[in-house]
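Lab notebook, design round three. We kept the backbone fixed and only want residue identities now. Task for the bench partner: fill in a sequence for the structure below.
Input structure tokens:
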């Protein structure tokens, strides 16, 4: 999911600090130097539920979660920067599907991405912050 987000984000925000649309991405547990605006991406698995019965390897398991994109911009710039970044998260993720290969079985699975909701977050004095959260669902064999 992070690769899918990064590929879509880079279409809107090239990875070139000289580009006026440059807004880099930080991922969990990776080194990062922050410019004036940036986003951080986290995958949060929430509910996992077995949906069918049967022998091992044939049961279906449903996994739900949230793809959280934290938005950061310089303080004292108003809310348009964050609103624009939230809209860009929607463009990249909302209503999309990601096809992934299950390396154990050689089959493909779909990750369905649903609605994206956004809201402001309190400032820490250095950054104006917001968050855009996209829910997802996928099924796999267990």
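Proposed sequence:
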């Amino acid at each position: 999911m992070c690769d899918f987000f990064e590929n879509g984000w880079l279409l809107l925000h090239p990875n070139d600090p000289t580009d006026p649309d440059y807004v880099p991405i930080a991922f969990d547990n990776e080194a990062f130097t922050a410019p004036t605006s940036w986003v951080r991406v986290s995958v949060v698995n929430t509910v996992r539920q077995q949906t069918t019965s049967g022998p091992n390897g044939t049961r279906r398991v449903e996994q739900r979660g949230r793809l959280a994109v934290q938005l950061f911009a310089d303080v004292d710039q108003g809310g348009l920067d964050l609103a624009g970044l939230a809209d860009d998260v929607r463009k990249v993720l909302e209503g999309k599907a990601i096809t992934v290969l299950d390396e154990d079985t050689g089959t493909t699975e779909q990750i369905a991405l649903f609605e994206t909701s956004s809201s402001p977050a309190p400032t820490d004095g250095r950054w104006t912050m917001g968050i855009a959260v996209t829910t997802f669902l996928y099924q796999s064999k267990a």
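Keep this in mind before ordering anything: Strands lie at 25-27, 37-50, 60-74, 97-102, 107-121, 127-141.
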